[in-house]
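Researcher: Please generate the 3D structure of the following complex. Treat every line as part of one assembly.
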Amino acid sequence: MGSRPRRSVYVPQEIEPKWQKIWDEHGVMKASDSSPKPKYYDLVMYPYPSGDLTVGHARNYVMGDVLARMKRMQGFEVLHPFGWDAFGLPAENAAMKRGGGLHPRTWTRENVAKGTRELKMMGILYDWDREVTSCEPDYYRWTQWLFLLMLERGLAYRAMAPVNWCPVDKTVLANEQVINGRCWRHPDVEVEKRDLEQWFLKITDYADRLLDDLALLDKWPHKVRVMQTNWIGRSMGAEVDFPVAGMAGESIRIYTTRPDTLFGATFMVLAPEHPLVERMTTDKHRARVREYVEKARKETEIERMSMERDKTGVATGGFAINPVNGEKIPVWVADYVLVTYGTGAIMAVPAHDERDFEFARRYDLPIRQVIAPPTGPRGVLREAYVGPGVMVNSGEFNRLGSAAAVERICDWLEAKGAGKRAVKYRLRDWLISRQRYWGAPIPVVYCPTDGIVPVPKEQLPVELPEEYKPLAEIPSFWRTTCPKCGGEARRETDTMDTFIDSSWYFLRYASPHDDSEPFDSELANHWMPVDQYTGGVEHAILHLLYSRFFTKVLYDAGLISVIEPFMRLFNQGMVKRFGQVMSKSAGNGVSIDELAGAQGADAGRIYEMFIGPPEEDVEWSDAGLNGVVKFLQRAWRLVLEPESIAAESGELGATVDGQALRRKVAQTVGKITEHYDELRFNTAVAFLMELANTMQDYLRGGGARDRVWEEAVRTLVKLLNPLAPHACEEMWERMGEKGMLADAPWPAFDAALAAEPKVVLVVQVAGKLRDRLEVDAGLSQDEAVKAALASEKVRAALNGRGLSKVVYVPDRVINLVP
RNA sequence: GUCGGCGUGGCGGAAUGGCAGACGCGCCAGCCUUAGGAGCUGGUGCCCGAAAGGGCGUGGAGGUUCAAAUCCUCUCGCCGACACCA
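Model: Done. Output below.
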């Protein structure tokens, strides 16, 4: 290589802007609604426009882009849209904190422009014509429309709810704004609990379907399905009425998942807020009970929920009758019973419930065992036994297994009218009111004559006023007339939780400019469901559960034909640097400008895919990035060295080396296609590196630059294209290929071509590796045994012993067991 | 506390019952070069050995299997979610 040929040098700064412009002009990622091709809906969770986009955040968008680009080349009509989750507290907080007093709208729009530019710099292609921004009136008009749909369907209602109230700001705070029981803006001010009328969505009506349909989501991460299952928290049990002693016709209804332990109930507990507390309490106990209830009410949610604190409670002095045995048991009040779950009252079975056990110990209440463990000592319990066992001390149910007893006792309760089977959920209705400016106004008015009146749909949107101030302080906003009677009325001044905005945006992408409805049903049915949904695991419950809920409501309303929105879900890991999640504000971010200006967006893209398993958090390293740059440069040289362009024609696979190269190319096509599809990008990059290495070895070994070589080069460029699209388009053009690479067909996998004629057969003797033999592929077991026994090493290991067993896995391993 | 996940070379990781360590980083030796944070060649799990070769090895201990990083049981460590839901 004395006199080097003049090389074309890879300069990403020149080619990246060039191709970004061309893609933009050609509308490469524009999705056609009327294409005859099969559709593929590739969606990434739309972000909050923080203005903080780094290469770390971009990782997830690169994943979506790689998939979109491959699916396009594979002949799919790909919908790959983008938008902005622009409403809500984060945007408002950021505007206040970092925007120097900017209006949230101004701040948001600036960040959207910035973010769009940065995404384009990374070479990520979206159908920008379909961009949605949740804070713009042409979007939130339909968010409001959907609220009205919920209202019509009886799924939106107003109710009193205890909320976090900041006495200084005179506003309700979101849970996220309460830090250690104090207001986030006034660290010295404790948040109060207030009962206020709030809007709720009845997601609990859908609890069963949300739970049962998780079974359809077999391509979701197991973890997310488990989390949603637990969040919904369905439990089966019974409601039982315990008559109150001395109060005819009055009873305490409890809920239990363990009706088999009914005979073990030695006392009862009411939540402090339970309506019967006051009436149960005898005069002697009144003062203490009132004091306790008062104290419990004052405590914040945070204090009350804080674990590892001793259970407290007071006796009411009242008694109730256990319906199964007529026993009179004392009724207590304690704050470990929650008024918001079940019936707000429990029967306490200290022998078989850890919490009741702890409480009974503390207040010296009786403990009666009614389930005998199948094994182990009986007698005095040192702790609650919560497992199954045999019924004891339970009258006619004695000697039954506890599982059978559950059914028998439920039957008994139902026959006697003392109780019934019941299902309860941990899931609560969704509180959507926010006393905040930056959200979609809830479109109702309060009329002294007509009560709550929805704003007529044709009057939507209820637009946010220009002035940035709590809506309740803007009379020009809330002073209005009743749509029904025309009289003076007051507008709702709360806005909606931002999770409402994101519960339907994936439908809006189907018809983003529709100005007569939230989405065109036909188009939504065409594109839905989302084939691949990619985003952070932090949304495992809220966003994903709410979106599933909305989808089911819209299905019931006949507006859409799918019951689940997202078929396949993927949670990508985060990019860290110096041990912390990369972000501009943390000062450890690598900006997209920096990257593009130095190693180039393509190197960054490949690196982000190569850096580690896509679902794991990964540590950014500049050294690792350099390795990828070298790979990219090597690929560039392989493809564009002058000799490879001036290829000779020749017979396909004329030489042994040529055949091997063809085989490697075919194998790589198979593996890359599969691994991109399964989002296993780190291994996909490794296979491409292997291919490049093989190609380089081929040339070094004197391989001809014939048609086999040309085909290898073309295939390498195509397979690499989704990862490094700028470099690959440029190579494609310089190779003299016609048309854009983005439009070129994806290479087809040829299994016959990929098959290895010779394989290395591993020979084990009694499970220990003794030799490796190169043999023809597809050997029969007899042939394999013969080949193995021909080996000196194998014979030595067998040491003259015969074979008692042979295990043969064709083309991989043969295990000879003496 | 409960549930879920993860523990593999100096490092990121690969292999989901069949050759442990693909691919890359780093490191070592050499080549090329005026130069190298460029390029090329070879090597690189650990231990014994001059070598041939042998032994050991996927947090730890057992087990299932012809065969285990992979499946099961227990255990240790780390991470995440939920957290009195009766």
